[in-house]
Amino acid sequence: MNPKYEAAVEKRLSILKYLGFAVLRKTVILILLAVAQLPLRAQLTYENLHVDYDSAWQYKNLKVIPIRWKGAGNPGLPVTGETITLNEALQKGLARVSERGSASTENVHWLIIENLSHKNIFIPGGDIIAGGRQDRMITRDTIMLARESRMQVPVMCVEEGRWSDREKKFVYQKQANMHLRKVLDKSRNQVLIWREIFNELDKDKVKAATFSYLARNQDKKFAALEKEYWDHFQQRFKNSDSTVIGIVCVSGDKVIGCDIFAGTNLFYGQLQPMLLGYIDEAIVHGATITAPDAKVKAYMDELLRSEASQQAFIRERGKAFYHNGKIIHITTY
């Protein structure tokens, strides 16, 4: 072949390759932009969820109905790597909680959480941490990414009457009951939180040195009853399959609350503290169960029928936590 002609062919081929690459690159960019416009929120609706009324478990004043994932695969989380709950992290020594600084009152509403692992940590609002200068309750849901070694977390005091220079060791306890979680989420008001705790303790004539939400745990009868409930439901979950990602709970003539997570790992990681909160709600505020399934179904229809109905329901009666545009946790009252 003529060298000049060969050079011309090679030049044309290189131009075509460049143009082809440019077109391919443009196509990829357009596809990515189109995908970016799609909703990133997992469908935590009837499209992928099943409320298993036939598998409901009941003990005394509490009925627990599992919510199962029926979609393909798992809803998943919009983060890289393994994610565990704060409860799990503290139990396994993978996290540490400390006061933010001095005994100055400006530090009352903050705690420091240190991530001692290479895992993401989901920190649920309503979790109660005992100790420090006073017992606290986490204010809102958040995710501490694996790359974050230290985070300031907003909290509320749940022990009026103690703010000490001497710190006790922090110990993870459980989630608050639904009455207190609702006051927290709707008001974020310290005085109203103290008032709710006082009313609950006063209702059952609980005596304590400080007005601590956890003071009731010192009552042997309450502690024994709480354990009865937990032992009953723990066994039921042990014998169940692993598709559960949420629960709706009933006491008396109404639904007392619902929690749904974007994954079985988060649900089971939070199961014990969350269920203890529902158990406390049933013991303190509950009654013999009279609510029919039809009433529960009407409640769940509003929550799970569609994303539009879900968002409207949550605005009125709950909260949702999103990370990177994807839903992680739903709580309703």
Short description:
By secondary structure, this protein is α+β, with helices and mostly antiparallel strands.
Features:
single chain; 333 residues; alpha+beta; 2 domains; seven-stranded antiparallel beta sheet; six-stranded antiparallel beta sheet; 18 strands; 28% strand; globular; disordered N terminus
Question: In words, what does this structure look like?
Answer:
The chain is of the alpha+beta class. It folds into two domains: 1-38; 49-332, no CATH class. The protein contains eight helices and 18 strands. Strands 1, 2, 3, 15, 16, 17 and 18 form a seven-stranded antiparallel beta sheet that branches. The protein has a six-stranded antiparallel beta sheet with strand order 5-6-11-9-8-13. A hairpin with a 2-residue loop joins strand 2 and strand 3 (62-69). Helix 3 packs antiparallel against helix 4 (190-203) and helix 5 (220-238) packs antiparallel against helix 6 (264-285). It is globular, with a radius of gyration of 25 Å. Mean pLDDT is 88; it is low at 1-5 and 21-41.
